[in-house]
Specification:
This protein is of the alpha+beta class. 25% of the residues lie in helices and 20% in strands. It contains three helices and five strands, in the order E-E-H-E-E-H-E-H. The strands form two sheets. Strands 2-1-5 form a three-stranded mixed sheet. Strands 3-4 form a two-stranded antiparallel ribbon.
């Protein structure tokens, strides 16, 4: 399942990290209140976001209808996307080279 992260810029402006071309086309269709920021690659409101909650809600509803998993965060979408895993992954157990045994050494 493809996911889309809705977050906020430092000034509180909604930002959307859309990695799927299909989701981007849905979000940026003709007359959409969203535009693609060429510098960041994120979608942001076309004008001042007066009612950003409704703007985000309608975009999330549209994308959910097409099967996208939506993540809402108050962080910048990049901060959310590049977080380390919450549960550390243990390193793999050591493996002996082929032909060696774990017996005593000389």
């Amino acid at each position: 399942m493809n996911s889309v992260v809705f977050g906020r810029d430092l000034d509180g402006t909604p930002l959307i990290n859309v990695l799927s071309q299909h989701a981007a086309r849905l979000l940026l269709q003709h007359g959409s209140p969203w535009l693609l920021d060429p510098e960041s690659g994120l979608c942001r409101p076309r004008g001042p976001a007066g009612d950003s909650e409704n703007l985000v809600g309608s975009a999330a509803t549209l994308l959910r209808a097409y099967g996208y998993a939506i993540t809402l965060t108050s962080a910048h979408p990049w901060e959310y996307a590049f977080r380390p895993p919450t549960k550390p992954v243990p390193p793999p157990a050591p493996v002996l080279p082929p032909g060696r045994t774990a017996g005593p050494t000389r």
